[in-house]
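job 3f2a | input accepted
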Amino acid sequence: MERAAALETLGDVEGAIAAYEAALARERTHPHLKTNAYLHLPMLVAMRRMARLYPRALEILDANKARLTFPLEHYQVHGCRALILHELGRVSEARIDAGLARAAAAKTHPGLRYHRDLGLVDGTDDAFGRRLAAIIGGQD
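job 3f2a | predicted structure (140 res):
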């Protein structure tokens, strides 16, 4: 995971993709080991509009929906799905996922008894949030 993030920061997008895929492969062989590669790889694909990887990103997101615990995870997963589906021309589906992402971002409590602010969305005024808002607003 850290290798992928470092490669992405250095501009080696293909290396980052390979490292995220390696992390996901490791999770399959070692089920007790979990990373956030299932979030980071689709986010990279969606934000960089890497159309050739849209099917893989959707596959990863859909395969990991059961792992979602925190509002931030729901925001990222549904947001990535919305961006990708919108790019694929599946606008009505994209708007549904964008609405689910917005609902997750609006949550003020993660549902945990002792950690009342853990995993909340800390603002949506970034490129990701603006693209989601455009989908919700119908700006195709």
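job 3f2a | Residues 59 and 101 are 18 Å apart (CA to CA).
job 3f2a | closed
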